[in-house]
Design a protein that fits this description.
mainly alpha; two-stranded antiparallel sheet; 20 helices
Length: 450
């Protein structure tokens, strides 16, 4: 054990997530499927952020209020996510720097420190959603009081410590298993709900009605809950987990190709899950949108035949709570990794995983505990806090998107072969401008209704 390992805080200026960087072997074969299997995994960790508890209320609520109208919003959000995550993976693979390291390198120490603060707060805001989702799931499944559930979420640090000892490939497998649980649960519930297929398919075509005040506000909520900043840092780092020769352009191109396949496949799963959430809301709860503002009301509605119809049953509501718990645990794993990436990349400070988790979760739990105690364990108050945490993420998103698009479009940073093509540059700039404007509008809308 070297001297740095004995310290709680040490200096970090090496490869991103050094303990897993370049640790996963890939086959020396031309077989597409063998390569795809070897490269599959990082995309799943990224996809988790696109279907975390913060998405659930907005997607199900969007279906309950406006039917299948907002399916097109989920589609557009997912395409934007694929574009951004492709650029994040490319930055990591080509430069061997994650987004935090690149931002620190090309902006300097003082600005880097300021951007680190904003990004850390965004990760804590993400963690608030995980705390709330986990506590409510424990309450629904086991009757554990919300206050006790919030406290229990602190101990998921033990889960993370166990996982870090298993190796990165095992973590990827566990995350993919939990994603499968979420996918199967909602697929089953949607099949039982028997949605209107023609109306559902029509929803993928953008309609002018989306621009109406109420519909636009809900659409902005879906976009804001889908595209989140910590995923860009995460994607740029874990894309480097596979072994490849940075000096060989063909090998780099090969790695980027399969990293992109992995990312797009896993984000397609996240897209389907978000569609299933909205379809479920539309098929079972259309016309009851104003009654379904919390996880508990959704849970109860799934077993209430006066709302969900003849298919309502305790099984549906139990499966919903199980999926909610799985989603929270998945987000815990990826949130901690993202926190380590931004701390080491922006301020070159390294602390053990358990300390990182305790600090992040401890700081995230404080506002949730205050809210729970002050409002007497009122779930509506917790869900409002969750919404406000998503609004803060909207503020932090441009801090991640603007550098990402700039760095990956620079020939000096990426090289002539790997810099963004003109079409990608235009698409990236448009996405950044549009999302920034929409997020500012979302913040204004939310503040007006406080």
């Amino acid at each position: 054990m070297d001297k740095n390992e004995k310290k709680i805080v040490s200096y970090a200026n090496g490869p991103s997530l050094e303990e897993i960087n370049g640790t996963v072997d890939v086959p020396q074969t031309t077989s597409f499927w063998k390569n795809l299997i070897a490269f599959s995994g990082p995309g799943a960790l990224v996809a988790v952020g696109y279907m975390d508890p913060g998405n659930w209320i907005t997607s199900i609520g969007g279906g309950a209020k406006y039917g299948y109208l907002l399916m097109s919003v989920i589609l557009i959000s997912s395409l934007i996510a694929m574009l951004l995550q492709y650029m994040a993976a490319k930055l990591g693979i080509v430069t061997h720097m994650d987004l935090a390291q690149a931002t620190r390198k090309y902006t300097g120490k003082k600005l880097g420190f300021g951007l680190w603060i904003i990004t850390e707060l965004a990760i804590m805001a993400t963690d608030i959603a995980e705390v709330i989702g986990g506590a409510i799931a424990l309450n629904l499944l086991f009757g554990i009081p919300l206050l006790m559930g919030v406290i229990l979420t602190i101990f998921d640090v033990l889960l993370l410590l166990i996982l870090t000892r298993l190796g990165f490939r095992k973590i990827e497998a566990i995350v993919m298993t939990l994603i499968l649980v979420i996918f199967v649960v909602f697929l089953y519930e949607v099949i039982i709900a028997q949605p209107n297929i023609p109306d559902m398919l029509k929803g993928f075509i953008p309609q002018k009605q989306v621009l109406h005040h109420g519909e636009l506000t809900m659409a902005l909520g879906i976009v804001g809950a889908t595209v989140m900043p910590h995923n860009l840092y995460l994607g740029s780092s874990i894309s480097q987990s596979r072994k490849y020769n940075l000096q060989d352009e063909e090998h780099v191109a090969h790695t980027l190709r399969f990293a992109t396949w992995d990312s797009n496949i896993q984000l397609s799963v996240a897209f389907i899950v978000n569609c299933l959430l909205l379809i479920l809301g539309s098929a079972l709860f259309f016309g009851h949108g104003d009654e379904l503002g919390t996880f508990s009301t959704l849970y109860n509605a799934l077993q209430d035949s006066s709302i969900a119809g003849a298919v309502a049953s305790p099984l549906l509501s139990t499966l919903f709570a199980v999926a909610l718990l799985a989603s929270g645990q998945n987000s815990t794993i990826t949130g901690t990794l993202a926190g380590q990436i931004v701390m080491e990349g922006f301020i070159h400070m390294k602390i053990p995983t358990w300390a990182r988790r305790v600090i992040t979760r401890g700081l995230s739990v404080i506002p949730v505990l205050i809210c729970t105690i002050y409002f007497g364990a009122n779930e509506q108050a917790l869900d409002n806090l969750l919404i406000y945490s998503q609004v803060f993420l909207s503020l932090a998103l441009p801090v991640s998107m603007i550098p990402l698009v700039y760095f990956t479009s620079s020939e000096k940073i990426m090289g002539k072969r790997f810099k963004n093509k003109p079409l990608i540059i235009v698409a990236g700039c448009l996405c950044t401008i549009i999302l920034t404007i929409l997020n500012i509008d979302l913040i204004i809308e939310t503040l007006m209704h406080i």
